[in-house]
Write a structure and sequence with these properties.
CATH architecture of the largest domain: 2-Layer Sandwich
Structural class: alpha+beta
CATH class of the largest domain: Alpha Beta
Helix content: 25-40%
Radius of gyration: 29 Å
CATH topology of the largest domain: BirA Bifunctional Protein, domain 2
Distance between the termini: 27 Å
CATH superfamily of the largest domain: Bira Bifunctional Protein, Domain 2
Number of helices: 14
Strand content: 25-35%
Number of strands: 30
Shape: globular
Length: 535
RNA sequence: GCGGGUGUAGCUCAACGGUAGAGCAGUAGCCUUCCAAGCUACCUACGAGGGUUCGACUCCCUUCACCCGCUCCA
């Protein structure tokens, strides 16, 4: 399947529209249309139902170390700015970049290594985008090349001591870029802040600056104590939240995959430190199965454990659930969900202040006066276990899923083409969305075979009986084959048709979207018949 | 943000410095007894803003969006 076909179908049938399309669109933002809003609601509801509503707090599900409780939360998008300073987003989401006019490459400003060198009365800063010894070696090579010297003439280079980074140099006119041959090809550094800023209250100054959340997780951490104090929950338990997050991505791309406004479905699961590894494995496998059960069953879905050097600064174990989206190169996968073992990093950060790694542990980051760089709340977020009479800071397992990415993956997987004979027996191409019935926007369509003989009246009664129970659609226009095909394209799993036999014995046909098979049921039983097949 | 490409109807594609056309889709009606049938009629477009010109969809500039590559990606 080519991605353009799916994008065209999504627009044609009302799954997804570009945001503000009549004004030319806005990069990185998307709107869900009449069918899309139902699909996405179904994704959210399947997640919330499976993770929270239907969870039995008293029994351990298969693979879980012990019984655990699940509850929910719905936090504000805008939170106290200190939340983002302590979480690390304020510093880490703020990057400086320089571009090279010669190589057309972009570099992190603080990651360009370089060294001053002088030759023939010309002093330049030669750089490399490598790090450590690789950088030193490359800088030496590049300096020789820049001054057009042979290796044996390297004594003519007068090096100043120490490799440093470009951000310590300040200006770029005497800098040789990492992939450039000439001088001064780098632009001035430009700031990229991945957090959207806004101002709270009528006065716009530094003190009123706030941020749209770049993830929903922090709202859960800062409410950890509130939930504990208001619910009598005991560790282990999880708090779920679904909500919008915002990241001012440099390059939104690939349909809705990387959007600037997106919806997350996150669980923060709090457990005893000594059992956190077992819980991490449980959630990794449990979340993977969720996608499989909703239809991402093939080779395009995979579970991938991160390499140790790939882990985030807080994490001691992360696995991605990934899907081979059609817009990616063959063999490449895009992240649907990350399941991370976050240790006690988050709760400690909001107690003590922003943490940085110190050996195997973390310590509060300090400023030049030795005080915390960003002060925490000072509130005690530890947990007292009545049974063991121990106090500890719970460890956190975080399964963090993208609702829009999941919806997109389900659409990609559902897109199918086959050939079915038309009324003359000639094979015709058919496009259909093989969505899991739980995800399908419309569960059933009701048709009179023809628009006469009292069939529309019976069909309308059936429609009226279905509609209060699940999304249904009525259509009496044109040939029935065309009506079937339209529903196939919308992913409707079942079509109910009133025909002449209905007039005689009160039965109707039910047609299956994937197999095209039909069977008869009494017309009063078709709501229950369909309900039973919705899963 | 850089380089390359593309913007005409809901979709796929034409044409032309001087009245924008087709197929499919859609709507209405007729017909139709199970898989995009037929007939009739109808609806709908030059991404946006400037400039050149008597006249611009066409030429030029700017901008926006999409695609590919780079870059980035908790």
């Amino acid at each position: 399947m080519r991605m353009e076909q799916l994008v065209a179908l999504c627009k044609r049938r009302g799954f997804l529209f570009q945001s503000s399309e009549i004004y030319g669109g806005l990069n990185g933002f998307w709107d869900y249309g009449p069918l899309g809003v139902e699909l996405k609601r179904n994704v959210r509801e399947a997640w919330w139902h499976n993770m929270v509503t239907a969870h039995n707090d008293l029994a351990a599900p298969a693979g879980a170390p012990e019984p655990y409780a699940m509850t929910g939360l719905d936090c504000a998008v805008i939170m106290h700015p200190q939340v983002w300073k302590c979480s690390g987003h304020y510093d880490l989401f703020l990057d400086y970049f320089v571009d090279c006019r010669e190589s057309n490459r972009r570099y992190r400003y603080d990651q360009i290594a370089g060294r001053w060198v002088e030759c023939d009365a010309q002093r330049v800063f030669v750089t490399s985008y490598q790090s450590g010894d690789d950088a030193a070696a490359e800088i030496e090579q590049k300096a020789l090349k820049f001054f057009k010297l042979r290796a044996k003439d390297k004594d003519r280079l007068r090096w100043e001591p120490g490799v440093t980074t470009l951000d310590k140099v300040g200006e770029t006119s005497r800098v040789v870029g990492p992939d450039a041959k000439s001088l001064g090809t780098l632009t001035a550094p430009r700031e990229f802040n991945l957090m959207f800023e806004t101002y709270t209250g009528a006065v716009r100054d530094e003190s009123s600056k706030t941020f749209l959340r770049p993830e929903t997780a922090q709202g859960i951490f800062v409410n950890f104590k509130n939930v504990l104090d208001s619910t009598r929950l005991k560790v282990p338990f999880g708090i779920a939240q679904i909500g919008k997050s915002f990241r001012n991505e440099i390059t939104p791309r690939n349909f809705t995959f990387r959007s600037r406004e997106f919806e997350q479905m996150e669980i923060e699961f709090f457990c005893r430190p000594d059992s956190s590894a077992a819980w991490y494995r449980y959630w990794r496998d449990r979340r993977f199965r969720w996608y499989v059960e909703l239809g991402l069953a093939g080779e395009r879905l995979r579970l991938r454990d991160h390499d140790p050097d790939e882990l985030s600064h807080y994490s001691c174990g992360t696995a991605d659930i990934e899907y081979a989206f059609p817009f990616l190169a063959p063999g490449e996968f895009g992240e649907l969900e990350g399941v991370a073992h976050r240790g006690d990093f988050d709760l400690r950060s909001h107690m003590e202040g922003k943490l940085v790694r110190a050996g195997d542990d973390f310590a509060v980051e300090t400023d030049e006066h030795g005080r915390p760089r960003y002060r925490g709340s000072g509130k005690d977020l530890s947990y007292y276990d009545d049974e063991t009479q121990q106090r500890f800071i719970p460890h956190v397992i975080e399964p963090s899923a993208g609702a829009d990415r999941a919806a997109l993956a389900f659409l990609c997987e559902a897109y199918n083409e086959d050939e079915q004979p038309d009324e003359k027996g000639v094979a015709q191409k058919r496009v259909f969305l093989k969505l899991h019935p739980r995800l399908a926007p419309i569960k059933a369509a009701v048709f009179p075979l023809v628009k006469k003989d009292g069939m529309p009246e019976i069909a309308k009664d059936i429609y009226a009986a279905l509609k209060p129970r699940f999304p249904a659609f009525y259509d009496e226009k044109g040939a029935v084959g065309r009506r079937y095909r339209r529903q196939d394209e919308a992913g409707t799993p079942f079509c109910v048709t009133v025909d002449s036999q209905t007039l005689a014995d009160g039965t109707v046909t039910i047609r299956d979207r994937d197999t095209l098979q039909q069977w008869r049921v009494p017309k009063d039983a078709c709501a229950e018949e369909i309900r039973a097949r919705l899963g």
